[in-house]
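User: What would this chain look like folded?
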Amino acid sequence: MTVAVDQPRFERRDNALGLGVARPRLSWRTTASDPDWAQAGYDVEVSRGGVTRVLSVESHDSVLVPWPDEPLTSREDVEVRVRVRGFDGTTSAWSAPARAEAGPLDPSEWTASAVSPGALPADTDGRPALLRRDFTAGAVARAILRVTAHGLFEVELNGVRVGDDALAPGWTPYQHRLRVHTYDVTHLVQLGENAIGAWLADGWFRGRIGFDGGYRELYGDRTALFAQLELTAPGGALTTVATDGDWTTHPSAILASGLYDGERFDAAERIPGWSRAGFDDADWPPVEVVPFDTSLLVAPDGPPVRCTGELRPVTVTPLAGGRQLIDFGQNFAGRIRLRAAAVPDGAELTLRHAEVLQGGELYTRPLRQAAATDVYLSDGGPLDWEPRFTIHGFRYAELSGWTGDLHDLEIIGRVYHSDMARTGTFSSSDPLVDRLHENVVWSMRSNFVDIPTDCPQRDERLGWTGDIQVFAPTAAGLYDVSGFLASWLKDVAAEQLPDGTVPWYVPVIPGGPYWTPIHPGAVWGDVAVLTPWALYRHYGDRAVLADQYPSARAWVDLVDRLAGPDHLWDEGMQLGDWLDPTAPPEDPADAKTDKYLVATAYFAESARTLGLIAAELGHAEDAERYTALSAATRAAFRERWVLTGGRLSNDAQTAYALAIAFDLFDERELAAAGERLRDLVEANGHRIGTGFAGTPLICDALTKAGQTATAYAMLLERECPSWLYTVLSGGTTIWERWDSMLPDGTVNPGEMTSFNHYALGSVAAWLHGTVAGLTPLEPGFRRFRVAPQPGGGLTAAERTLETPYGSVAVSWRRADGRFELTVTVPTGSRAELVLPSGRIVEAGPGTHRVGEPTTVPVVAR
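Assistant: Here's the prediction, encoded as structure tokens.
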């Protein structure tokens, strides 16, 4: 019998440099050849400062276990190996070692100053700057670079780009938190003379952000770089090269850069060798040292934005005036890279971007006031150019200014988003359903760009709280979003108002008269409670509950005050079932479902969930209080809206979906409520009749009420509004409106018309949990259920998921009169397999195959 342990992981980090905690938690995965093997304890070998210790712990835990040794100190290196012990007396071999390094853990330990290239013209995109300095290095055992910025940065050391992340340090509420990126640059430092340099651009810090023309200089009127290069000699002596008044600066070859409007690059303005040692910067002026608060510096929780893939054009079509229309075949967020052996001196290559065409031309009206235009001015030399500090959402691009043979020009679409690990897949016997799922994945990729945005293309791209609240379970089923969303939830807590109000979007920026002042709103504000719980259920990370608990409690307490003694939240601004397909374009909140029904239902659900969170954290009194509050709100909801026999006075699809999903009906009413919801869906031709509040829940509600066949009919409906209408209309991402593209091929005239919004793609969670049948029974999928419910003519489905304990694989087939289910359970987990007949099979680690005749009656679940 063999037992093996994978290399352990620190916290949620793949890159364990610059940890921001002194006691990093550890996780590992175990594989055992005996399915009955179970971990009884583990040993952690900790090597630090030349001393190695082995610490033994009696525990079956292997996910985010407590740090077993003394706390790390600032800049301390540590190496860790793990071995596990079974109840049967077996002991594994040691895992491969994992290394980590703690960053400065006290704000006073930083020696760098923030340096700025100086004042920039107001009310315009700033010209990115170059900053540099030379330094001398002796023998170096290790070189660590820590860097952040007010703005966006890229660093070069001796002429070589440091790292491959983009749009760093990302977007946080800079007045509360600013991430520091850490790099091991030992291989780039040379004995003797060296140079370090950085590009510095506006980004979110002082660039234009927001709709209705946007706002500039929201966080400051000038950019600044904060960097610290720490050189450790073989004997341990530390030398620091930090940003200070000795650095110099010069305008870069990027003439202007904005996240919405794009970049303009003049190749003739390039400065060869500027980041190499010996460069003559005598005519470069010194930087200005500016105020900087090191207490705001934090280590990243999630991965940086990177290029995660490349797309080649599927067609390039000539247009009038020497223009070329480029179709990448996929809507995505990113940039275009151009390559050519030479471009005539003075040539101006212009790239315009759009998601859709109309009349054979780019249709840019949905971009509103985002120019989304990149320009390259040639100096007559070779071309290898990609914008640095902008990003666009597009499928199509128009290139003008190229006069040569197109075969001499290489055009590459570069896909950018936070570099989360892909953890979940789904496929079925229906190609249209699979394309729908792929559209969900692409919309997530396009919008998980440092924060969870609404759309990647127009003058908005904000972290709308309601969108991610409804989508978080889907997101966690596709990618490892544990660190990404844990970081953003900290921003939610930081931006939460003193009275507990959760903003509509985070980070907060001015929103014009409609969104200002900030009002508490259901669905959106409930992100403070429901999203931490969704992450805990998926990843088993109790810390995210503890970190967000004050925020979650403040939200529910606020709603409790607003609802008053009758427990009905029936006043104030509410978005309700936003973008109900029957709502008029000028009023997306004018839905069929009573917005106060939505608010009260969500109040009951958030109070119930907060009670569960309190219990998990050991807050017994709070658990009792919020559970009682939920029960009282449920009773108030029932008295206000529930009629005799499982009907609602507000007879709308979303009303029933919420009431069923949130257990607001009595058990004896559930079947009747499900039948009424079925009838409403059938009366609507199985087309979508729900908006942001109802759509993510309606299929689950139908299934819960025994109407799974109707959920399949909704899934497979092809007429607008429906999920497959989008697919059949050529959509490669999820749309903001069900009819963003009208049946006649023209674009919806509404002001809000995006072709890349993920929220309505939350149906993928139903594909994962009902079609494939995989759901957690315990946090982190330590125990899980596989209970597929075939329907809709599907003959097969498959689902894979990388859980904290290992790889889960599910597949089922219906053929030749039999239903066959195959499930792989990882070591450390157990599963409950439920066949369509209701038969239950308990399964331990290993691969299991079970089946039954399809003639066996199906049990409604």
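The chain has five domains: 3-101, 107-300, 306-418, 424-574+584-771, 780-853. If you want, I can go into more detail on any region.
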